[in-house]
Amino acid sequence: MHELPFDTVLIANRGEIAVRIIKTVRKLGLRSAIVHHDIDARTLAVSMADAAIAIDGPTPIAAYLDIPQIIAAARQASAGALHPGYGFLSENAKFARAVTGAGITFIGPSPENIELMGDKIRARNFVQQHGFPVVPCAIEEDDPTTFVRRARAMGSPLLVKPSVSGGGKGMQIVRDLGALEDAIAQARSEAQRYFGDGRLYVERHIENPRHIEVQVLGDAFGNVAHLFERECSIQRRFQKVIEEAPASGLSSELRQRICDTAVGIARAANYHSAGTVEFLLAGGEFHFLEMNTRLQVEHPVTEMITGVDLVAEQIHIAAGRPLRLAQSDIVPSGHAIEARLCAEAPERGYAPTTGKVLVLDYPGGEGIRIDSGLSRGQNITTAFDPLLAKIIVHSPSRIETAQKAHRAMRDLVLLGCATNASFLARLLADDGFLHGHIHTGYLEEHPHIAAGDPRADLSTFLAAGALLTGPVRESADAVSELHAALGSWRN
After folding, report:
1. Mind listing the pLDDT tens digit for each residue in 373-414?
2. Is 169 a residue whose pLDDT tops 90?
3. Is 286 helix (H, G, I), strand (E, B) or coil?
4. DSSP string spanning 301-319?
5. DSSP H or E segment with residue 162
6. Beta bridge mates, 235
């Protein structure tokens, strides 16, 4: 029997993160409810939830951004709490305020926290005012009429970024200042489409840094703790591909400084709930990048090395409870790597792919966790982000973890839609990756990892075609009378 002030949690999200949240909600003895667009009606998350409420909109994404519909669904499900997952409305202060205004507990930071740290521009100014290092930038809303001129004055390369962002959406690198205005227009359009906020800023682009981020938890009683760092340096177009914890090759002194800085920023912000403070690391120096006021896609690697269920901690904090963990209670163990399985073709510039899941078989075994929202027969479309599942692996050392993750990717079977599984397997076996020589430009420097071997792809397609051909499968599975008579005998 749980001791929380609510019995039902509405998940305002979809896919693998909805499934992952439902699992913890069940573990805590709570009921789960979920909203879903018709395109998701037969997905795993909808089938797992205790209640499912349909929502609609001009597009599937628009449905998941419709605040009044989601609030109405929470009331219909008699939900006392709402978890936003990541993406969609998870970092929308207006949404958080509407939820709490409806008498429903928002499982996430306060609207004030989101307004301060979820807004990248305000967060940068706040962090800088408190004496923490940030990258030089030009902010549009400081003076829109001089925005482009101030950005140009910093010189190239530049990085155009939305004030509200996630998953690299809306970000544009500018190496030729003549292309700056086009990049600004494109970034604004994408930011408006995905986040409903077209405000921008431009910062000096640091070439090939490492991306290091720190998981923090804070409560309403002033307690803040970190759960150590993650490394997310393997990226393509600002989208993380491989995440791991801990970061490789950091000295204990540098690790402590980065984690202490993250805790200092969260404490200064009076931050409640789970959050992630991100830094760029180059030349032994680190700069604040942004703070994500939500659960991160890559949170499982932290859970694997610490044993802490971050969703459960979010729920307890949202219920008004103090942190259940002191800093000294959080002791990392081993190494964890997460690989993002996506419906995309790396050899064709990461173009999105579509199809119907005909065969699905995930790897298993000790130290392997699968976070997935996929099920057999499900249609994969381009209506949403291409992320299909996360394969998370834990072992005592980094090299053992990478080798186990490589085997897991080779063992994974998904037929019916092209994915990046072969690309991930190549990356996990890459010599530079195994030695930890990584940075955010690693994949651009090593294009052969994405390109792959066309001969191997042809063999894969032929094998898949054979498996899907009934007579061929039946012939392969047949056992001759002679061999059948041998039973289970082995020499």
Report:
1. 999 999 999 999 999 999 999 999 999 999 999 999 999 999
2. no
3. strand
4. HHHHHH---HHHHHHHHHT
5. strand 158-162
6. 240
